[in-house]
Amino acid sequence: MNSTPGGLSENDSVVLAEPTRDALRTLGRMLVEVGYTEDAIAEIVGARDPDEMLSHTANYAYFTDEETTELATTVGVLARLFLLNRAVPAPVVRTSLKRELYATLESLGFLSTAQGACRGTVSVTPYRSRLFLSDQLFTSKGPQKVRHSTRTDMVMPPHATSILSLSEVPDVTGSLLDVGCAGGFLSIMAESRCDRVVGIDINPRAIRYARANATMNNTAAWFETADIGEYSIHAKRSFDNLLFNAPSLPRFRAENSEMGQMSAQAAFMLIASAARRTLCRGGTARIVITAEVQAKFGSLTAMVDEWSASAGAPETTVRELDAPSLGITPEQLRSRRLHGRSLLVTERSDVDLLMNALLERDVIEVVPAVIRLNM
Question: Per-residue pLDDT tens for 297-350?
Fold first, then answer.
């Protein structure tokens, strides 16, 4: 059987083999035992709070000094390998990690050793007593040496929009369909509140990670490869809730062809259609978007109202989110400057490119928000 980095099955029709499941459960237990938590890592790298750190992990990799004393501890070495995505001298890894933990990481394929140094092959993100495997969004050779991944089928770690989407989870009860579930972060975080959770994604690689994360966290969420545009309800069991963290960051080009991205309008139309097929009477669809607001609408609410009328959607409400790193105010657009910690570009040289594209599309602001459709 072929395997990806991390030893996850390439054949999506095959449930993870039992030895792999056992190893994942063991890994989860050991990481909890050594105190591998977002709070501990935030303290080591000097973050203001864990959510802020996980939303800007590449920045912390960029600025964290390799001589930081705490990076030599067990948690520090794990953070270097699996969150800052750095190489660590192999003797340091073997000395800092317990033998069973090292052996488990190695057996799963989560460690790669070459030229006397170890690297993580995956990211392992701790969050609220849970752990999430994913691809590495970037790699780092040390302070000010960060390279972002260009992998087209990359499964991202929990990040800013994932954490923003959690604000909707307290209102979710009954059953949940998590659309575009990626590594299963929202499904697993919501699972304890729900009778039934199903996560779907068009990327088979994402489903392999999601299933591994469900195993590692001992949750009953179910994951499968599927396209929400064609998704059929199994055994005619509709859902009480649908949640879609849409990949709708502002675009550098006018067309909707950028890798992995879709416009906020496309996300809305997709879910407005899917909600009729998947939700029960009285159910709610929630779409977390970052929307380009055009001058002809004047506001996000007016723009969504027109989308809703065009789609014949049911009752729709809009809640704008306080997330400066994901938005662009009219003032910022006029001055052609982004928020100091903006997540809308990976290179500062891209700022002008983005601003030009937005102005060409007559965009007056970029707004992160949650749209609710009540059936």
Answer: 999 999 999 999 999 988 899 999 999 999 999 999 999 999 989 999 988 888
Q: Which two tokens stand for residue 2?
A: 């072929």
Residue with tokens 């009328």: 309
User: Where, residue-wise, is CATH 3.40.50.150 in the chain?
Assistant: 160-374
| Better-scored residue on pLDDT, 10 or 212 | 212
Torsion sign (Cα): 90, 93, 98, 103: negative
- Tell me the HSE value of 216 on the side-chain side, using a 13 A CA sphere: 30
Q: HSE on the CB side for 251, CA within 13 Å?
A: 22
Alpha-carbon distance of 205 to 213, in angstroms, equals 12
Contact indicator for 56, 325 with CB cutoff of 8 Å: yes
pTM over 0.90: yes
Backbone angles phi, psi at 240, to 5 degrees: -80, -30
Contact of 118 with 111, CB cutoff 8 Å: yes
Per-residue pLDDT of 255-282, as tens digits, reads 544 445 899 999 999 999 999 999 999 9
| Sequence-separated (6 or more) residues with CB below 8 Å from residue 308 | 268, 272, 316, 373
Q: CB count, 10 Å around CB of 130?
A: 19
Distance in angstroms (rounded) separating the CA atoms of residues 101 and 26: 8
State the number of CA atoms in the 13 A half-sphere of 327 facing the CB.
Answer: 17
| Type of residue numbered 125 | T
Interatomic CA distance for residues 36 and 249, integer angstroms: 31
CATH of 160-374, one of 3.40.630.30, 3.40.50.150, 3.90.1010.10, 3.80.30.20: 3.40.50.150
Closest CA to 136 of 127, 149, 125, 147: 149
